[in-house]
Amino acid sequence: MDIPHFPESNHPLIKGLFHNSDADLLTLFQRSPEEGKYFTAIFCRYSPIVYTLIRHSARSPVQADYLFALTWRHIYYELGGLDLRNSPDPSASSFQNWLINMTAVCINQAELPPVESIHYSLQASPPPLWCYIEQALEQLPPILRLMVLMSQTFHWSETRIAAYLQAEGEAISPAAVKIKLVQGYHLLENALPDDIRAIYLPDDKSLRSEDSQEMDRASGVIPIL
Questions:
Q1: What are the CA-CA distances from residue 219 to residues 43, 152, 175, 205 (Å)?
Q2: Model pTM?
Q3: Handedness of CA 100, 101, 106, 107 (dihedral sign)
Q4: Is 113 exposed, middle or buried (0-12, 13-18, 19+ CB in 10 A)?
Q5: Among 150, 146, 129, which residue's Cα sits nearest to residue 138?
Q6: CA angle 52, 55, 57 (to 5 degrees)
Q7: How far is CA 62 from CA 56, 116, 132, in A?
Q8: Mean pLDDT for the chain overall
Q9: What is the pLDDT of residues 78-122, one digit of tens each?
């Protein structure tokens, strides 16, 4: 299995952080949660190491990509409280060692589903984009979040979504569901950090297109795990 290439590493926002130390990137990430470039820079710097460790434990490239994404999701949520200066474990005294240890934990604890059950695309949803989309989804009103997930994760039609919601006591038509979905994608994009949109959703790939085109493009970046 070849180590995947991530084109975001060549983005000016990421290349501008090339000379920052690990400690600098970690501090900037923790102090500026509204910016996504610092985590993305960490990801680009260490994705080859993490993927190399993972590919030897996965039976197929599909499972390797899936576990790779799960591992970086775990790393993302652990980074917020990471303080290597007060680590009781000497082996975790460097950022690289800490990342290797986190990867090992994820490999050892992972219960990977069969290949045919995995619908995740590493190319469509690189781990940094997935992490920030997941964070943005949490900011949507519950009904909109549910509709977006039904549409993109389960590929339900507007009619099926409306029927489900009606059964739950919501008086809503398929046409209204379609309007709400477009509204949900607008809110979802607006909830993403500006730099994440600049890196992963340039103008020609924006979620802000019309009606069905907007939904089709959103399906390429909303992760399915």
A1: 23, 6, 19, 12
A2: 0.85
A3: positive
A4: exposed
A5: 146
A6: 120
A7: 13, 9, 22
A8: 87
A9: 999 998 776 555 544 589 999 999 999 999 998 888 888 888 889
